Amino acid sequence: MSAPSLQAFQDQVSELLLRHRSLLDVLSKNGQSNASVNRAVTKAITECGCIELHATKQSFDIGSDLESARELAGTHVEGHLCENCREAVSSELGRNIFYMSALANLLDIQLDEVVVKESQKCSTLGLFNLS
């Protein structure tokens, strides 16, 4: 089964969203779904233990090239999500995308256009994109 396009998914969300059609309801559900993603990742660390978080200051050698900097920069994550935690995080991410799509629908924004614009910005700005 092929993945639906962003537009097809947005259309599906628009058809399904009956209860939370108010912008304020969708904003609140979107915030809840963000928190649920964070909670699922946190539980993978604190309850399951399949991944560990080892956060330290990211240090970069000013004279190093981009590839060396990428190799030095860590994710702070050690291990891999187990099957149960991967399913929990994926499920919460799916719900998050649902409410992001609902928000875009209510504001007449096409997510595929957002992705294209963001990709173009990333290509143009490169490393300076997230400054």
CATH architectural grouping: Orthogonal Bundle
CATH homologous superfamily classification? MazG-like
In helices, the fraction of residues equals 55-70%
Number of strands: 2
Give the structural class: mainly alpha
Shape: globular
CA-CA gap between termini: 38 Å
List the total number of helices.
5
N-to-C series of helices and strands: HHEHEHH
Spatial order of the strands in the main sheet? 1-2
CATH topology: Helix Hairpins
Computed Rg: 18 Å
Strand residue content: under 5%
**Overall pLDDT confidence:** 88
Count the domains.
1
CATH class: Mainly Alpha
Describe the structure.
Helix 2 runs antiparallel to helix 4 (83-106). The longest helix is centred in the first third of the chain and has 26 residues, at 23-48. This protein has a single domain (6-130), classed as Helix Hairpins (Orthogonal Bundle). The radius of gyration is 18 Å and the shape is globular. It contains five helices and two strands; from the N terminus they run H-H-E-H-E-H-H. The chain is 63% helix and 5% strand. By secondary structure, it is mainly α. The termini are far apart. It has helices at 6-16, 23-48, 66-72, 83-106, 111-125, and strands at residues 51-53, 77-79. Strands 1-2 form a two-stranded antiparallel ribbon. It comes from Paenibacillus glucanolyticus. This is DUF1573 domain-containing protein.
